[in-house]
Amino acid sequence: MAFSDQLWDGISDVYDAILAHPFLAELSDGTLARDRFVFYMQQDGLYLQDFARALGLAGVKAPDAVTLQAFLDFGSVAVSVERGLHESYFEEFGAGPDAPKAPACFAYTGFMIATAANGSYAEAVAALLPCFWIYREVGNHIVAKARQAVAENPYAKWIETYSGDEYDTSVTRAIDVVEALGVQASPDLRASMQRAFEKSARLEWMFWDSAYRLESWPPKMD
After folding, report:
1. Which terminus of the chain has fewer Cβ atoms in its 10 Å neighbourhood, N or C?
2. What is the pLDDT of residues 75-95, one digit of tens each?
3. What whole-number distance in Å separates Cα of residue 89 and Cα of residue 56?
4. What is d(CA 88, CA 93) in angstroms, rounded to the nearest whole number?
5. Long-range contacts from 90-93, C-beta under 8 angstroms, 24+ separation
6. How far is residue 198's CA from residue 123's CA, in Å, rounded to a whole number?
7. Is 70 exceeded by the pLDDT of residue 221?
8. Domain membership flag for residue 219
9. Residues 152/160, Cβ–Cβ less than 8 Å
């Protein structure tokens, strides 16, 4: 079994929980409340800034110029594609990007940056991969499930972005990088990569759950 297949098998329960979450179930059929989607987009904008930083931190640890360029390209695609998506929805829904980080976003971005800064190159890219990979699978799942109904969904642009060819190409390249590292890694390093991958996958679930609950920080304690 390919190493990347082992990674994905390790999060099968998490991925099933993601697909079953009401945020994605309601986004899929177009019934998701706008305030939840706006909250999600605001948090996603904050997440994207730190995701690009983590990509940069991981990229400087790349063993060669080709791999470094791949990470720069990943960051460029993530920023340009998703920023355009955010701006489109903020204009359509009459909302703005300004918002404080919710706890789930804070936890997720903190984990990514810490792993990219302090972990090995292999651990860093394994921690970054779920964001690419899970979004592609979710986008493709919704398209396969909804078929013609996607065009009439108010969140069609979101679905089309993550099921599109440009995004698919970036995800495939990211998987290839991790696959090559996993093949060369020691058993202990592969285990560390698996743990980083699984933690980010769980934080993906938490991120969507946070948006559905309109999560806020607890009040001050006396």
Report:
1. C
2. 667 667 777 787 888 888 888
3. 27
4. 9
5. 90/38, 90/41, 93/34, 93/37, 93/38
6. 11
7. no
8. no
9. no
